[in-house]
Design brief:
8 strands; globular; six-stranded parallel beta sheet
Length: 200
């Protein structure tokens, strides 16, 4: 099993000029990495990462779009799998960080269905052209180039560990800043401007 930081680091190193959509935990992990102006955080649109990524992929078909989703986030909007498969963009890679909990490292609430859910099976049934599962950082680093160059839309489930919960009576949650909720719009406007300039 790999850590979320390891998974995001591997993707970031191999993404090239892809647009990347992150959500929840993957957003926090990619914030620690070298900044890319082609990254957008899908917060507070929890569950909407696949749909947001799909729109970007269809708008800019010459450029790969990578979505870093969460298990609980995806379960909130399972219809996104069908929307992606129906549109069938050949530049779309959908990765789900499956740590089997919500608010990892904070509250660690069990993700519904976390014992029996088969994300790879769901993606295949929806119509993704390829679906993979990786359980170690080494296997993922070795397999990701094949995923990125292979048939798409592609789906990747990553087995992710999580830290012990820190929230409780002695350490309550902190209030989120307004910037966390305006960030997605700001980043999307920046990406749109960058890609429009690149196309000229």
């Amino acid at each position: 099993m790999m850590t979320l930081d390891q998974a995001c680091q591997i993707v970031n190193e191999l993404r090239g000029d892809a647009v990347m959509v992150t959500t929840m935990g993957s957003m926090n992990a990619t914030d620690k990495l070298e900044h890319s102006p082609l990254t957008v955080a899908c917060v507070p649109l929890m569950g909407g990462a696949a749909s947001l990524g799909l729109g970007i992929a269809l708008a800019r078909k010459e450029r790969k779009t990578i979505v870093l989703d969460g298990d609980a986030s995806l379960l909130m909007e399972l219809g996104g799998l069908v929307s992606v498969a129906e549109a069938a963009p050949d530049n779309f890679v959908h990765m789900v960080m499956n740590n089997r909990v919500q608010f990892a490292g904070l509250g660690n609430l069990d993700t519904p269905g976390q014992v029996n859910i088969d994300f790879v099976g769901l993606a295949k049934a929806a119509g993704y052209r390829q679906a993979y599962r990786f359980e170690s950082a080494e296997a993922f680093a070795e397999g990701l180039p094949h995923v990125l160059s292979g048939p798409a839309p592609a789906f990747v489930e990553l087995a992710i560990s999580y830290d012990p919960a820190v929230l409780g009576s002695e350490k309550p949650a902190v209030e989120m800043t307004d910037a966390r909720f305006t960030r997605m719009g700001d980043e999307l406007r920046r990406i749109r401007q960058l890609l429009e300039v690149a196309a000229d």
